[in-house]
Design a protein that fits this description.
Blueprint (H helix, E strand, L loop, with lengths): L1 H20 L2 H23 L5 H19 L6 H18 L9 H18 L1 H6 L4 H4 L2 H20 L3 E3 L3 E5 H26 L5 H29 L14 H21 L2
Length: 269
Amino acid sequence: MKSRILVAVVGLPLLLLILVWAPSWATMLLMMALCAVGVYELMHAVAGERAYLPMVLSIAMGISVCAMIGTGREGLFLPYAFGFVTLLFLFAIVHYGKESAVRFSDLTAAVFAGLVFPLMLSCLLRLRLLDQGAAFVLVPLAVSFGTDTFALFAGMLFGKHKLAPAVSPKKTVEGAVGGLLGGVIGMLLFVWIAGPLAGISLSYALILILGLAGSVLGQIGDLAFSAIKRESGIKDYGKLLPGHGGVLDRFDSVTFVAPFVWLIFAFGS
């Protein structure tokens, strides 16, 4: 517990410093690092050492996705993605039937890890690059952390009915409902604290939508990555953050919330 609190006390201010006050290129570098570690954790959990080259290719692709977004070169995404998938299947063809062969499930994991996951998490970078992005980038964090906190305490105090016992035995329906409340409270705190500082005003309808829908997506993200852990037979994705696990353990819900928030602010107004 001490290590968990220490990581939060040190890590959260550092995260906010990079996301909010540092130049946008610092956010890009942070996303590149988080995606690289997250891709490694996912591939290591699903495929292990048998898919070493697909893992390396996926890490390189995940870093490239963040770099293309951060430098405004997203037009290169399709050529890069095409080359990435082609190399993956070329590797599978060349090594088919050999001891170094990889399974199709490993290749699909590599595509998800190298393309889908970075595209989703890097929506934090997309938010940062918007007008008033230094404030908007905090929304997925406010919703996700609010959801996680209230879901934990609501589950501890009132939890009786299991939500998805095969995936996450400790999660309850009551905890999920508490998480919905936490998502809305997280949004209200964002508006009350960051709003005046950044000159942002959001309608209560939008606050409710972001809080509730964001909370639902965050909980889906949490359960989705928990399902992968269950299937892979691991407790945590890594040990990078003592007391918290790996990058995927800490940013699982943010990965699902960030794209939704970006779509709202980029195209909803």
